[in-house]
Specification:
It is built from ten helices and five strands. It is of the alpha/beta class. It has a domain of 120 residues: Rossmann fold (3-Layer(aba) Sandwich). The chain has a five-stranded parallel β-sheet, with helices on both faces. The longest helix has 18 residues. It starts with a strand and ends with a helix. The mean pLDDT is 91.
């Protein structure tokens, strides 16, 4: 079972994975494990597509991935969480998208980060789809994040803002 947990939430192309990569450079005792990874693996098994193909063309498969994620959550609201939380060690989960996931990780004393970015900036990073889906909007009204970082400027600015969280994260887990 996971020991220390950091979660990231934000809309598509906000920079959640980028923030996770930046944090992993400094927090060497953590590893990345995404809820979406579990969904992609299961989708790959169901369709015969490789995980690499799905990742490379995620915008093409996004509606199906969302549907699969929602289907399994309807069967067991903790389905994907259980897959991730079963991992040992310290983990960064870069794709928390719905309230049940947030509440679960909150109960596990996760450090919670929201990544914000304007729609115009996100659209420059990739094709925005399913913008009104609950997986995109369910956490918009949440205000009790441990930290909120903004990705509307340069990569260097975002990296510096993300790295500024490292000492706060270390203190949180002491």
């Amino acid at each position: 079972m996971a020991e220390k947990i950091i979660i990231l939430s934000g809309k598509q192309y906000s920079g959640k994975d980028t923030a996770a990569k930046i944090l992993l450079e400094e927090l060497k005792d953590f590893k990345r494990i995404g809820l979406g990874d579990a969904i992609k693996i299961e989708y790959s098994e169901n369709t015969g597509l490789s995980v690499e193909e799905i990742e490379k063309n995620k915008h093409l498969y996004r509606p199906d991935l969302i549907a699969l994620g929602n289907k399994r959550r309807a069967q067991d609201s903790d389905y994907w969480i259980k897959k991730v939380i079963a991992q040992s060690g310290n983990i960064i989960v870069p794709d928390v998208r719905v309230k049940r996931e947030l509440e679960f990780f909150k109960a596990e004393n996760a450090f919670r980060i929201r990544v914000e970015s304007d729609a115009e900036k996100r659209a420059l990073r990739g094709t925005l789809t399913s913008a009104d889906d609950p997986t995109e909007t369910a956490l918009d009204d949440v205000t009790d994040w441990n930290a909120v970082i903004y990705n509307n400027s340069t990569y260097e600015d975002f990296k510096n803002e993300t790295l500024a969280l490292v000492s706060q994260i270390r203190n949180f887990f002491q």
